[in-house]
Amino acid sequence: MPTLSPFSRLASPVDTATYGEYRITRRADDPRPLYRFTGRVGENSRAGFTPRVGRYHVYAGWFCPWSHRVTITRSLAGLDDVVSVSYVDNARDGRGWAFRERYGPDPVNGFTLLRQVYEATEEGFDGHVSVPTLWDRATASVVSNDFRTIGIDLATEFRRHATPVVETYPEEHRAEIEDLDAWLGPVVNRGVPAAGRPGPAGARARTALLDAFAALDERLAIRRYLVGSAPTEADVRLWVTLVRYDAGPNAHRTINPGLSAYPHLWAYARDLYTLPAFRNTTDFDSFTAPGVDVPDWHAPADRPTP
Ligand SMILES: N[C@@H](CCC(=O)N[C@@H](CS)C(=O)NCC(=O)O)C(=O)O
């Protein structure tokens, strides 16, 4: 009988009859945060997570906006050959995220389920398993599953090992990037799903979202990027929401006629899509609702110079 290399092992197909639907299991009285791993990579990392070529791996999902932010930042930071990445399957059953044929096996540990990555870190791990997850080969453990700080560390801590295409978290713009996050996080980046729902809460979320789109359209009429003269984390965080908007949450135009209703915002989104870091990390099939035509992301974008 042929023996399979551990690195060609794949999970069996999604099977909800056997494994049930995926559910977040968490006791109501559990005081620990849902996303429990918050390690930081840096030369002065208290846990010893020093930035090194080939040491870290990102477990991501093509479908997942939080992963997408990290994979874009990784590319903009020039880390394509410094920090590796692999992708879990888009679908799951009660076993959670898994490695299947569509995107290949786990190239680091040869696990079939992402859960095993967490169990290898903490015996009997019973918490939340999510992408993105940053894995450390040196200690064979999860560093973090917090997209925001993974992105910031990739953007800032690997300068000795890579030449960034662009600095996405420059010191002089950090306050403005985080101010924008405080505004756009709740109403846009985390607000879109609510805006597609019926009822008064959905209507409120829709108004807040479309007001934010209108304000962004005005802001982007006279500037190429949200902050400063080059793409930053603020653009990365917003863009992954925009690229999914008419493909998923607004696929059936339940929120508005489409992103193109805001011409500057729409041109800004297409302009970013011309950059390899944005284009090569985007897989429309992984987040487009069945049978939906996505708008033309290749239409030229006439943008103000920065
Ligand atoms: N808050 C998380 C967001 C990550 C997240 O929600 N990831 C989703 C996929 S897009 C996930 O894996 N969720 C696990 C689950 O649904 O149980 C972060 O900061 O990184």
TrEMBL record:
UniProt-listed InterPro entries: Glutathione-S-Trfase_C-like, Glutathione-S-Trfase_C_sf, Glutathione_S-Trfase_N, GST_Omega/GSH, Thioredoxin-like_sf
- What region holds the GST C-terminal domain? 170-292
Write out the GO MF terms. glutathione transferase activity
Source species, domain of life = Bacteria
Any one annotated GO CC term:
cytoplasm
Sorted alphabetically, which PROSITE patterns does this protein's record hold?
Answer: GST_CTER
Pfam families of this UniProt entry?
A: GST_C_2 (PF13410), GST_N_2 (PF13409)
PANTHER family named among the record's database cross-references: GLUTATHIONE S-TRANSFERASE OMEGA-LIKE 1-RELATED (PTHR32419:SF6), GLUTATHIONYL-HYDROQUINONE REDUCTASE (PTHR32419)
- The protein, known as: Glutathione S-transferase
Q: Which organism is it from?
A: Plantactinospora soyae
Q: What is the lineage of its organism?
A: Bacteria, Bacillati, Actinomycetota, Actinomycetes, Micromonosporales
